[in-house]
Amino acid sequence: MPKRVLQGTVVSDANDKTIVVRVERRFTHPLLKKTVRRSKKYHAHDENNVAKVGQTVWIEETAPISKNKRWALVPSA
């Protein structure tokens, strides 16, 4: 099964080797037929502490790293 990959914005890099990424999704409301924005925050592993607040990054699903971390930063090419 392929790993899920999400794009989001870094909202916190205060912790060592961890970033918090806000991922936004858009969908049409079933009744109102209006586009709705929902966001969710994910804790992601950042081995080299390269991501900074405000950056747009890609994260991918991984095996559990800690209690909250199930995602890892995708290294940029």
TrEMBL record:
Keyword rRNA-binding appears in the UniProt entry: yes
UniProt keywords, alphabetically: Ribonucleoprotein, Ribosomal protein, RNA-binding, rRNA-binding
Record Gene3D superfamilies: Nucleic acid-binding proteins
Organism domain of life: Bacteria
InterPro entries registered for this protein in UniProt: NA-bd_OB-fold, Ribosomal_uS17, Ribosomal_uS17_bact/chlr
GO molecular-function terms, A-Z: rRNA binding; structural constituent of ribosome
CC per GO annotation: cytosolic small ribosomal subunit
A Pfam family the protein falls into: Ribosomal_S17
A Gene Ontology biological process term: translation
Function: One of the primary rRNA binding proteins, it binds specifically to the 5'-end of 16S ribosomal RNA.
Family per similarity comment: Belongs to the universal ribosomal protein uS17 family.
NCBIfam families (UniProt xref): PRK05610.1, uS17_bact
Complex formation: Part of the 30S ribosomal subunit.
Protein name: Small ribosomal subunit protein uS17
Lineage: Bacteria, Pseudomonadati, Pseudomonadota, Alphaproteobacteria, Hyphomicrobiales
